[in-house]
Amino acid sequence: MIRKVGPTEILARHKASCHCGAVELELTLPDGIVNPRRCDCSICRRKGAIVASVPLAGLRIIRGEEQLKLYQFNTGAAKHYFCQVCGIYTHHQRRSHPDQFGYNVGCLEGVNPFDLGDIPTEDGVNHPADRARTPLS
């Protein structure tokens, strides 16, 4: 649990936004940032974000829902959202835990994710859901 990043206290209800401010979220973080991580799957390698998770009820879109675009790929299970104005990834509904949203820690108001130091990387290339699928011949 991370309750402070650099000079910023992580609030129990913390705001997050995209770069241009068109999309604003409110995250319920009673324990601060829990289990921040990176992932090496194809989309996460490209977006480079540090992600943490909240239950679905722990993320509320305050403003700009109409500015969010949905991107899905591979199995189509994960739902990745980004601002169509500035292109910033804000959050996604997780494939491995569909009852959770992953959120971009760098979108948290006042948080510089570089202040977190070393962050573990999960093996998204070898996702358990992919191993269960049979390759096509």
What does this structure look like?
This protein has 137 residues and is mainly beta. 7% of the residues lie in helices and 34% in strands. The protein contains 2 helices and 12 strands. It has helices spanning 42-47, 128-131, and strands at residues 4-5, 8-9, 13-17, 24-28, 38-39, 51-55, 59-63, 68-71, 79-83, 89-93, 100-104, 121-122. It has a 5-stranded antiparallel beta sheet, with no helix packed on it. Strands 3-4-7 form a 3-stranded antiparallel beta sheet, with no helix packed on it. Strands 1-2 form a two-stranded antiparallel sheet. Strand 1 and strand 2 (8-9) form a beta hairpin. The longest helix has 6 residues, at 42-47. The model has no long low-confidence stretch (mean pLDDT 92).
Q: What low-confidence regions span 5 or more consecutive residues with pLDDT below 50?
A: none
| Helix share bin | under 10%
**What's the arrangement of strands in the largest beta sheet?**
6-11-10-9-8
* Silhouette: globular
Tell me the number of helical segments per DSSP (H or I, 4 or more residues long): 2
Summarize the biggest pleated sheet: 5 strands, antiparallel
- According to DSSP, the number of beta strands is 12
> What is the terminal-to-terminal distance?
45 Å
Query: What series of H and E elements makes up the topology?
Result: EEEEEHEEEEEEEH
Percent strand: 25-35%
Radius of gyration: 15 Å
Structural class: mainly beta
pLDDT averaged residue by residue: 92
**What is the oligomeric state here?**
single chain
